Amino acid sequence: MSGNNPKRGAIGIKDVAEQAGVSLGTVSNVLNRPDSVSERTRLRVLAVIERLGYVRSESARQLRAGHSRIIALLVLDIANPFFVEMARGAQRAARAAGLAVMVCNSAENPEEEADYFVMFAEQQVRGVLVTPTDSTASNLHAIRRRGIPFVFADRELPSTQACSVSVDDIAGGRMAVRHLLAAGHPRVVYVSGPPHLTQSRDRHAGALAALTEAGLPPGRLTVLEAGRFDVAAGRDAGARLLGMTDRPTAVFCANDLLALGVLQALYAAGVRVPEEVALVGYDDIDFAAAAAVPLSSVRQPAYRIGRTAAELLIEETDDGAGEGAAAHVHQKIVFQPELVVRASSLPGHRG
Ligand code: RIB
User: Fold this and answer.
1) Where is the HTH lacI-type domain (predicted)?
2) Are 345 and 204 members of one domain?
3) Average pLDDT of the residues of the chain
């Protein structure tokens, strides 16, 4: 049997065709349009492919198509479980379409983001899913110029030049602070992420809207700015909170990682949550429910955001037999957040 096998590395589509007794076109159909081939032929060709160890050349395919089978996903922080969920959703949609997702981390840094966009163009990715580092998203020029389609994930795009999938963060901030005010807290601290990120600003706007609705002045909300959206920045904000004279009894954090950092700082200082300070985070990552004091959080459908964004990008870049790209219309999808109340803000726990 091994005498029939051409040397590994030298096996081409011709060898497969020869040994299966079919034309080159039939082998190509088996690989690219399996539905157009009879079951018997398909199985015969696949058996030869398996026996010879034939692997099709991706670079040749890429040359023909003008793009690879890779979707780039550029997130703000690869260590944040929110983005891991988003990547899982994107990967699910990509796999169903025979594509793979390459996840990259801008680390909330516009320069790294700009470098990645250039690299994506060089790699001829099929399209880009991105959570941008700033509200103007000016770095996108690098891929826009080259005609690479992109979709905003976890960020609304003001214009209709591309698709976007996001969550109504103003509603999310509003529901968090409304909940704390309803529990009887007269003043609230907002631990914001970096102010240049839309997520920080929208959640802040929502928090202020809740005060207005309750007939309270904006001065009832104190903002503690965190340099990053991570646990260390949360611990730092927690230390500043502890240093406040006449400290407010409620804290809303712009994401769960910040809230977990604040929780650590309060715990280390012996300040009880929620008896002395009620705490609400944002995202509802798995660690929120698993925290020492289960964390109340504004839930975002991270998996759905990733999956939906990838589906829109796949539709837009479809070069297969389906309607795909021709029928594609840019969409702006905005999911609604949901408040999940746990022990960290339960009024019953206040002393
Ligand atoms: O990266 C910033 C934050 O925005 C994340 O934690 C998540 O909340 C996203 O929406």
Assistant:
1) 11-65
2) yes
3) 91
